[in-house]
Amino acid sequence: MDYVRHYLTDIRKASGNTISAYRTALNHYIGYLEKQKQYNRKDITFKEFNRRNVKEYMNWMLNDQLLAPKTCNLRLTAVHSLMEYASQESFELTAYYLEVCSVKAVKTPRKPIEYFERTEMTALMSAPDTRKKSERRNQMILIFLYDTATRVSEMLDVTIRDIHMNIEPSYVTICGKGRKYRNLPLMPKTKKHLKCYLHEFHEDTKPDAPLFYATTHGEKHHLSMDTVEKMLKRYAVKCISNGTKMPSNVYCHMIRKTRAMDLYQQGIPLTHIQQLLGHENISTTSGFYAFATLDTLAKSLEKANESQTDKKWKDKKVMQKLYCL
Question: What is the mean pLDDT of the chain?
Answer without folding.
Answer: 87
